[in-house]
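Tip: read the tokens left to right.
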């Protein structure tokens, strides 16, 4: 174990202070990078199971690789910050340099640099699934914002529809539709709680 391993752990923890930059468009706080990564993990696993395991397709999908890919796909933002669809047109970033430096002399360098490269190539199903989850999480958060009274601009809604059309998997497209039909609060309003099964039930 090297000093870089402990530095790496502290650096990944700092991602909770990196804000997703698209909040600039709505003036409403959105997820930080750590929160975004956590939900992508579950989304990617759900998409993979819907797309392959739930359809009895023959595949060699690795859920371990999916989870590793999710973990690594945005960690460069600890050094570069997050860019949005506008700022990306003006910023020149060396993401590969950031990744090399972040993982340098750590236990994770060899396999995670390879997985990061695979994610950016978008050739494997794991990479496509993770990218779909990455994009889908934005739509889910938009639904959460709307449930709290936020207004999402019409042009943004059109843009998000275009993104959904470019999903790699049928399962991501289906999930996108289901998310827009769902109420983000149903899980606690209709799940077991004090009103429907506890001491507040009348």
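Filled-in amino acids:
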């Amino acid at each position: 174990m090297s000093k870089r391993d402990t530095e790496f752990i502290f650096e990944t923890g700092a991602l909770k202070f990196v804000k997703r930059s698209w909040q600039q468009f709505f003036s409403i706080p959105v997820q930080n990078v750590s929160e975004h990564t956590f939900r992508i993990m579950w989304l990617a696993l759900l998409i993979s199971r819907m797309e392959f395991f739930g359809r009895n397709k023959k595949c060699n999908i690795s859920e371990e690789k999916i989870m590793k890919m999710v973990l690594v796909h945005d960690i460069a933002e600890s050094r570069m910050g997050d860019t949005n669809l506008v700022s990306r047109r003006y910023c020149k970033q060396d993401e590969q340099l950031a990744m090399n430096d972040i993982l340098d002399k750590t236990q994770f360098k060899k396999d995670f640099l390879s997985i990061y490269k695979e994610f950016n190539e978008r050739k494997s199903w794991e990479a496509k699934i993770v990218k779909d989850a990455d994009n889908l999480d934005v739509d889910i958060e938009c639904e959460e914002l709307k449930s709290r009274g936020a207004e999402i601009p019409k042009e943004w809604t059109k843009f998000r529809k275009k993104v959904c059309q470019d999903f790699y998997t049928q399962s991501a497209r289906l999930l996108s539709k289901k998310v827009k039909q769902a109420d983000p609060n149903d899980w606690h309003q209709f799940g077991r709680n004090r009103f429907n099964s506890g001491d507040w039930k009348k």
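Residues 3-185 form a domain with the Hypothetical protein af1432 fold (CATH 1.10.3210.10). The chain has a mean pLDDT of 90.
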